[in-house]
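Tokens in:
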């Protein structure tokens, strides 16, 4: 509990809740005096009252699931539980109630907590409506719905009379009686372009709770207030601000509940901002180390006979998980990646380091990998803009064999000739099988010439035209090829214990310079233009090196083959290429 949090006064058990919760000397005694159908009806009425006041009893008795203390704490705040329950379970009662935010590290059982909360709301709040949303349908109807089905099977095994009233469909849970069609759970994907799909969610039915209409029409008794809404936002940090704004209407209803867990990947946005608003929200920041797999945790439970016993549960997260991340962060617990993935804290900036400095230090101290010597050498070419350097690198398996940078000539034709000449010379030295280069812009002339040159002189060499700005092959996780090159392939290659890098001045700085961000489940690696805004020089040598990793990742349309020799290069360069080819044939260079 943060000492700066405002202390929220917690309510006490009312008389009926006390009878239900203290079952052994309350509701249980009342039911014992009944018989037959009346007894059965009374039992279900009282047991649902017991579960409504105590969602932990509900989880254990109805769903046969044990909870970690922090999961129990979340559910008590969601339920607006009485003070006596917090005292019994040894949990802090000073949070806000009903609307709960859970910024969290990975692997802490958030989805199980959501599933328990959804079933608790549905079964103990008659005519309630639960709206579930997430950035993607897979997070809803895949992961969350899978957890809901697991718990339903347990409910059906032990409470079939309750479970048989419900049907789980592809994106909803509905009552088998169509007259209760408004008593349900529905899932809707959070699409920023269609926020209206989440509008109009209300469920409170209390307009006659004061008894005025019952008095006018001489009804026996006024109907009890019913309904209520629960909004569940899975992976809340990835849900757009426009969606949260749309949901505000539903959450304005009296007694509206919110359950929103998420890995806090962004330093801004509604989730990051609302996690600071502890007067309105119960904010539970969960650290992976609260759920150590090597430790056992317990929570007290009192059954209907009055017997109290401790329920034991091992933690969920292996210490190796956070130890590996800490090592990746150079043992800095305040590094953004560790803050987000382990501590459940938002990053200090939207960007995270892509390649770790100690990976490079280790790779530059290693000898060449012997097994990699059987692999074909690959040349990578990167072409800088205006005053930026051009670069060439050679990789063979996990070994970096060569790297160089140079400032290009001012004359466009000389830029092309120089780059092509360096690539051809390097290929002859290292017997490279592939040459890959960024042909989108400055490098186009050189790459087109190299394509024609090797078709005429050495068909063994394959020239691949790479476009870093093109759409990613793995477009579910990345936006551009550059993002894939740096994050998906570059990180893994440099981090591999077989990787051997040359100690070239500036290479370490280039490899560690680009940062990345994550938004809507996609990775975005910082562009050269954005790095320049931070005062970072162009990373041409690093790009040339990592581009060699894209040879086997590239699809067919990155393999640019000329349709006709005459159309391969612009006419303005053709005379220079003809002279270069003639010089090659005579064994001399044209300078």
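Residues out:
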């Amino acid at each position: 509990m943060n000492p700066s949090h405002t202390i929220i006064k917690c309510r006490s058990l009312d008389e009926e809740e006390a009878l239900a919760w203290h079952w052994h000397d309350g509701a249980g005694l009342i039911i014992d005096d009944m018989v037959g159908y009346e007894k059965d009806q009374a039992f279900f009425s009282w047991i649902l009252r017991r579960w409504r006041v105590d969602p932990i009893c509900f989880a254990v008795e109805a769903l046969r699931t044990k909870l970690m203390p922090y999961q129990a704490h979340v559910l008590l705040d969601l339920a607006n539980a009485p003070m006596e329950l917090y005292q019994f379970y040894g949990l802090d009662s000073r949070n806000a109630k009903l609307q709960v935010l859970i910024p969290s590290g990975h692997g802490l059982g958030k989805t199980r907590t959501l599933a328990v909360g959804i079933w608790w709301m549905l079964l103990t709040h008659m005519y309630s409506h639960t709206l579930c949303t997430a950035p993607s349908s897979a997070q809803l109807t895949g992961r969350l719905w899978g957890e809901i089905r697991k718990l339903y099977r347990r409910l059906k095994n032990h409470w079939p009379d309750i479970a048989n009233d419900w049907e789980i469909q592809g994106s909803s849970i509905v009552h088998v009686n169509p007259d209760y069609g408004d008593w349900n759970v529905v899932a809707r994907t959070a699409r920023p372009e269609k926020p209206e799909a989440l509008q109009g969610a209300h469920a409170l039915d209390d307009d006659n709770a004061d008894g005025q209409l019952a008095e006018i029409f001489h009804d026996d008794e006024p109907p009890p207030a019913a309904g209520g809404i629960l909004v569940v936002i899975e992976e809340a940090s990835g849900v757009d601000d426009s969606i949260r704004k749309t949901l505000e209407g539903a959450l304005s209803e009296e007694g509206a509940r919110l359950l929103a867990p998420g890995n806090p990947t962004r330093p801004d946005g509604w989730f990051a901002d609302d996690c600071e608003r502890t007067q309105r929200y119960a904010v539970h920041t969960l650290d992976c180390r609260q759920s150590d797999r090597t430790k056992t945790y317990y929570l007290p439970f009192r059954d209907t006979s009055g017997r109290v016993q401790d329920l034991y549960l091992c933690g969920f997260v292996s210490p190796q998980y956070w130890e590996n991340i800490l090592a990746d962060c150079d043992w800095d617990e305040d590094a953004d990646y560790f803050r987000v993935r382990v501590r459940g804290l938002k990053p200090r900036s939207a960007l995270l380091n892509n390649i770790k400095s100690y990976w490079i230090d280790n790779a530059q101290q290693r000898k060449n990998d012997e097994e990699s010597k059987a692999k074909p050498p690959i040349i990578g070419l990167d072409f800088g803009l205006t005053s930026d350097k051009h670069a060439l690198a050679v990789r063979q398996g996990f070994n970096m064999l060569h790297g160089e940078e140079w400032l290009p000539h001012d004359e466009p034709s000389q830029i092309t000739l120089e780059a092509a000449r360096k690539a051809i010379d390097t290929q002859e030295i290292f017997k490279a099988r592939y040459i890959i280069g960024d042909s989108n812009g400055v490098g186009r002339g050189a790459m087109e010439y190299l394509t024609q040159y090797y078709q005429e002189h050495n068909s063994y060499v394959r020239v691949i035209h790479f476009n870093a700005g093109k759409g990613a092959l793995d477009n579910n996780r990345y936006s551009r090829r550059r993002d894939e090159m740096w994050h998906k392939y570059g990180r893994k290659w440099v981090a591999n214990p077989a990787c051997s890098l040359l100690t070239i001045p500036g290479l370490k700085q280039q490899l560690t310079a680009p940062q990345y961000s994550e938004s809507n489940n996609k990775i975005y690696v910082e562009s050269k233009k954005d790095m320049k805004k931070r005062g970072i020089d162009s990373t041409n040598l690093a790009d040339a090196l990592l581009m060699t990793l894209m040879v086997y990742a590239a699809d067919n349309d990155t393999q640019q083959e000329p349709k006709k020799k005459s159309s391969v290069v612009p006419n303005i360069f053709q005379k220079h290429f003809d002279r270069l080819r003639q010089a090659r044939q005579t064994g001399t260079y044209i300078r």
